[in-house]
Structures are given as structure tokens and as C-alpha cells.
């Protein structure tokens, strides 16, 4: 199916029916204003009955009339910006499969149906720079909305919108939008408090936004606030990456697993802030999901690493069609694990986990013993994670060289990862000190990540080289194994040289 994707940057304004049109040519940067074009638009909006998409500020509509008729899906991108995906009109009541794939993490098996119809009389003006390049579009919309939920209601209003043309950099675009806002305000328009026409149509029925944090953390306020804000953002990231995985976008499995691990790690580090049972159940579900995602990601990393190692060997030392054999073997491994991921993401078990995560964030089961004092309480949790890292380091140094030592350094890496996320979760309270500690832990994680990848590669090469049918290829596998051993030793030395900073850092009063 033909489909296009773009990032829109726009601002909306409320205008009375009698408000005169602004003098658009007076906006800084505008060299010419195009002739007005008028269109009659009808947009049917789709959502679940509990407005699961609206709660995440996602809109799904089918629009007829105008130059961009078709299905439109708008997903959050960054403040003031959304990713917009277009698909052809197709059938009125059938959402295109590619668009449905992007929202399954939000709808979770619940039916999607029409919840509102908006008819708009739109007059649009193209705004050009002095060199003739298109700068933006200004639209004057007279809207009539019919909402079909809760016995239905109708609503009419007028609004203006300024949307940047694609291709403008963020700084220049933001400057232009600020200039446009200033002129429109002088004309009598006010920046809209609603983020979309659909929000205006629903009025009081419009749900509160999820995944955007809850309140500004205070040093002497509740310790759970910065933690919950961080979890909010990571769950939003997990849901967004879900659609990318379903569409098999590059690096999406890695990003989704990363979000899953961050959530689990922070829940574990700050578990004493909450009642134990919900946290324990969520940790189990997240661990299982990360494991499913990890099989593909591990095969992806191993494939890339071994391919690079083979390419770097002189051709005369590569005995046999090893690269082709590696590609075939890893393709089977990745295809199998990817099938398992898709099965998992369509399972009731997965949807239930997402429901439980959102329920946890909406009504946090805070432990009764938790008292105010975010700075003091979170410092204790972060420093505990730092001490765990130092303890794991000492244990690794006392372990004999071999697989046991590799595992011990892997345990150090996992401790560094927990410290990194624990510190990152409370940067809003501890500022640069927490950021510095998180960065130092990340450096340890990176170095020992290379060490662990080498250990995994050596295990694979040993298995390949000792196979009964290895033949002369065993020689090549042996060379690669020895090269990986040297790599691991180099990264171990780098860690011992540079990891001291992370082991010594603490959050201070």
C-alpha cells in the first residue's frame, strides 16, 4: 500500500467568527502570500470506546475533500511536533493494516470505530519566502463537529493554524512560528489550549494525557514523583517502539528492549517506594518480554560481529564459504526469533502487561512507609546501586581467568546498567551530579558490553570450530577465537583503567 510519512510542526489559534484575517505578509520571513484556496473537508475519527488513542495524543482519521484526502495517523514526535502517516482512502470503515500495526500497542485487541465526524470549511494560504521557497501554510477553518460517544453532542467553532512546510530546520522554524504567533495575537486570536480539533470537539470528554509526566519534582516532595515521571516516559517509548518492531524497522528491536530494560531496572532499584507485589509481577513480565526481544537482538549483534571479523581476515586464511554459511545460519536464527517476537506482541499476555504498566502509573501503589524528601531518599537508592557496582567489581577481580571471569564482568556490566538508569531517573532532583554518575556508569556498560559480546562470540566460534563437520574451517574459527580473546583482554584493561570513576562517584548532600 502506498504510504507517506512526515513530521509536522504547527501552532493552532482560537478565533471568533468576527475576527478579521491577519495581514500575513507582515510576518517576519514572509515574502509573498499565495492566493486563497477553499475546500470542504470531512474527517471521520476512529478510536476505541475508552479513547485509548486520544489518551496518548494519537489521532486516526479518514478525510475526504482537499489535496490530502486519505487516512491520516498522527503520532507524538516531540513538543509541538507529530509524525503524520498518510495512506490512500480505501474503504470507509476499514483501517489500513499498516496503520493498524502502528497502534496495536494502544488498542490491544479492542475494536476501533468512528467516534466523531468533523466537517470543515477551510481557506488556506501558502506563505513563501522572498526567494520563492514555500515557508508555511496558514489555514482559516470553520468547523462543525458531531461526537458519537456518550449519547453524542455537536459543537462548532473557528480556528486558525500555521503549519511549517517540510525541510525547515528546528531553530528557523521555531523562530518563524513565534513571529506568526505574535502577529496573530495582535489580530485577536489566542493560542489554542487544545492540541487538536478532536480535542476541541470532545471538550470535557477529552482524556488526560498519558506518558507526559505528572508534576514537577521537588527536592523535599515525594520521592516517587521523579521515578514515576521517568517510568511514564519509558512506557511511552516502549509503546512507540512497538509499532516500529511490528513494521520491522532497523534497530527497533534493540530500542524496544532498551525501554523494557529501563522500566524493569528502575522498578527494581526503587522497589521499596512501592508495595512489593505489583512491582514483582511487573518485573517478571518485563524480564520475559526482554528475553523474547533479546534472542533476536543477540543474534543480530553476533551476526554483525562475526561478519566484520571474517571480512577483516586475509582471504587466504578463510577456509571455505564461511560467510555464506554464517549468513544462512544467522538468518534462520533471526527469522525464528522474529517470529517469536511477533507472536508475543499479538498475545493477550503482552497486552495484559501493558495494561498493568499503565494501571501502575495511573494509580501508583506507593508503600505506606514512604515519606516526603525526594532528594534524600533517592540519593540513598542511587548510592546503593553504586556500592553494588563496586562490590561486583571486587568479585570479578577475584575470579580466575576463563568463563567464570567473563560472567563476573558481565555481572559488573549489569550493575553499571542499573546504576545508570537509577541515576538517570532522578536527574530532575539531583541535576548535574546524577547526570555525571549516569554517564560514568554508561561508559562502564559500553566497555564491558564489548567484553561480553566478545565472550558470546568466542562461545559461538568454539562451538563451530569443534563441530564434527568443521573440517578445515576449524582453522579459521580458531584464528577468530584467538582474535576475540585479544579483544576481550583489551576491553578488560580499558575498564580497569577508566572504570574507577564510576565506582567512586556518589550522590552527595
What does this molecule look like?
The chain is of the alpha+beta class. It is 53% helix and 18% strand. It has 16 helices and ten strands. The protein has an eight-stranded antiparallel β-barrel. Strand 4 and strand 5 form a beta hairpin. The longest helix is centred in the middle third of the chain and has 37 residues, at 276-312.
User: Average pLDDT across residues?
Assistant: 91
Strand elements, count: 10
Any idea what the radius of gyration is? 27 Å
Helix content: 40-55%
Q: Can you tell me the overall shape?
A: globular
Q: Structural class from helices and strands? A: alpha+beta
N to C succession of SSEs: EEEHEEEHHEEEHEHHHHHHHHHHHH
Amount of beta strand? 15-25%
Main β sheet profile:
8 strands, antiparallel, barrel
- The low-pLDDT segments are none
Could you give the distance between the termini?
58 Å
Strand order, sheet with most strands = 1-6-5-4-3-7-8-9
If helices are DSSP runs of H or I spanning 4 or more residues, what is the number of helices? 16
Features:
509 residues; 8-stranded antiparallel barrel; 18% strand
Write the layout of secondary structure elements.
Blueprint: E1 4-14, E2 32-33, E3 37-47, H1 52-55, E4 59-64, E5 70-78, E6 81-87, H2 97-101, H3 104-107, E7 113-128, E8 134-147, E9 153-164, H4 170-187, E10 190-191, H5 197-202, H6 224-246, H7 252-269, H8 276-312, H9 322-345, H10 348-362, H11 374-397, H12 403-424, H13 427-430, H14 432-465, H15 473-498, H16 500-504
Antiparallel strand pairs: 1-6, 1-9, 1-10, 2-7, 3-4, 3-7, 4-5, 5-6, 7-8, 8-9
